[in-house]
């Protein structure tokens, strides 16, 4: 099926970066071609041409031009199609609110999608080091809870019904948290300490767009279990 | 030009801090500057940036904005003229953001590892990574703005502001990490860019002396080795 204005997303089913871009595109109601990349065997010529610097997915191709880096893609989509679907993702008229949204999206990246994050360190380490890093990760989630509280709605956008920039940035968490607990053997804060975050998780999981964008939970768990052993070997001190 | 009170909390040699100075100075925005002692952070800094306790922080009309590229974006929104930093075209904007982010992920990361390397193996890898990253910038300048001095063409844009602070650290990378920048025969675009950036008055205003930065890089290395 021909993509809208030649929209194509180079993706990988279990990449949190790629899935959150899919979510943004779906929330905007955009039609696009999905090209699943075979990251472990051979990256496509299109991927290598479109992202020659990093050679990574996701890449959005629009009218023959490539946009890379997931939240960069989300900003691009928001700028080109501001009023489509659920409307704008970043606050429109308030520079400070925009800066705040970018800050918390960046926080999610630093704390949950980075190799220097406490969450990652906690997963691959053991003993006292693991517990200390796990405590730090819990503090990071409490910080998210506080921010969510300050926004006054179900979602980080402040709305009770529409997701925004920070929601999209964090949208992988409902599917990835079970991998932290079951495979990383990490503690995560429960609904008693982070009630709003748990309400948010339920709301995201309930969203038809999010369900379509993110992988089946069990498939993700099975895949992560295998990959985790390889990752641990590579990064353990 | 004033749109309320503007205060910058930063550290003289910080590349991230310099981005904020460059953005404000290019736009002619007046601001109060507060130098932070990173070993004895002010109460103001800890309150303004409770999550990371890091500089730079921009405080505008009492509200704090953190993370250098987010600050530059904010400055460009509030003071679009003169000297708009982000292109209007969404694709060109995305390209500028990509290279700004590249500065953090690849240039800063390699440079930081180079200075803090405790083994020859670490130093060599960091040096190779830094060389690769700067080579990519040289290539990008040729592709994005051929025959023009800046990523932004005739004037500096978001990507130029994000990357320009590394220039005053090259001497430090050489002194401490043995990193030698390939010459203009190899990297003509990068060298043209460096010359053009250094000629901008607003950039010269807050750029620290390269020798002082190199001395400071030496201090960082000694500390890194000392704690290894």
TrEMBL record, chain A:
PROSITE patterns: GST_CTER, GST_NTER
Catalytic activity: RX + glutathione = an S-substituted glutathione + a halide anion + H(+)
Record-annotated GST N-terminal domain positions: 5-85
A Pfam family it matches: GST_N
SUPFAM superfamilies for this protein: GST C-terminal domain-like, Thioredoxin-like
Organism superkingdom: Eukaryota
A GO molecular-function annotation: glutathione transferase activity
CDD domains the UniProt entry points to: GST_C_Tau, GST_N_Tau
Keyword Transferase attached: yes
Record PANTHER family: GLUTATHIONE S-TRANSFERASE U19, GLUTATHIONE S-TRANSFERASE, GST, SUPERFAMILY, GST DOMAIN CONTAINING
Protein name, as recorded: glutathione transferase
Organism per entry: Selaginella moellendorffii
Record lineage: Eukaryota, Viridiplantae, Streptophyta, Embryophyta, Tracheophyta
Automatic annotation (TrEMBL), chain B:
A Pfam family this chain is assigned to: GST_C_2
Organism domain of life: Eukaryota
Domain GST N-terminal per the UniProt entry, residue ranges: 4-83
Keywords for this protein: Transferase
A single BP term in Gene Ontology: toxin catabolic process
A GO-annotated cellular component: cytoplasm
Record EC number: 2.5.1.18
Catalyzed chemical reaction(s): RX + glutathione = an S-substituted glutathione + a halide anion + H(+)
GO molecular function: glutathione transferase activity
Annotated ranges, domain GST C-terminal: 89-216
Enzyme class: transferase
InterPro entries: Glutathione-S-Trfase_C-like, Glutathione-S-Trfase_C_sf, Glutathione_S-Trfase, Glutathione_S-Trfase_N, GST_C_Tau, Omega/Tau-like, Thioredoxin-like_sf
Name recorded for this polypeptide: glutathione transferase
Organism in which the protein naturally occurs: Selaginella moellendorffii (Spikemoss)
